[in-house]
Amino acid sequence: MIGRLNHVAIAVPDLEQAADQYRNALGAKVGASQDEPEHGVTVIFIELENTKIELLYPFGDKSPIAGFLEKNPSGGIHHICYEVDDIFEARDHLKSTGARVLGAGEPKIGAHGKPVLFLHPKDFTGTLLELEQV
Ligand code: CO
Asked: How far is the CA of 18 from the centre of ligand 1 (A)?
């Protein structure tokens, strides 16, 4: 069921500084910042040869990453995203194994314009997982 690693998301306290570091120190291909009001984040994608890095910064008052940055003031890995062929099939299968889907349990359109879901980190060895249908 699980497909490619789509991206690793890193929450950062300063989006421009993090983007500059990837651009200048690491020589990465850094995209433009995009606000995602529905997800409460501003994101910058960094294209690597085999995957992407998603830099996350809070957008709005009720950002789901605000608490994470409070606990991790210098930033940190927030989630990893795996690709799936069929997000409903993946969700139903994972629920049948006892995994909890966050929110209302229905896919939302993510930063790439594709349906995504998040799974509870306590059900996956302390790692917040995002599934994206590709
Ligand atoms: Co993501």
From this structure: 17
DSSP 87: H
pTM over 0.90: yes
> Hey, is 85 helix, strand or coil?
coil
Question: Token pair of 131, please?
Answer: 């599934």
- Name the residues annotated as catalytic: 130
Q: What is the Å distance from ligand 1's center to 97 Cα?
A: 23
- Give the distance (Å) from ligand 1 centre to CA of residue 98: 22
Number of helical H runs and strand E runs in the chain: 3, 8
pLDDT digit string (tens) for 65-115? Answer: 999 999 999 999 999 999 999 999 999 999 999 999 999 899 999 878 899
Instruction: Catalogue all structural domains in the chain, each as residue range(s) with its CATH number.
Output: 5-133 (3.10.180.10)
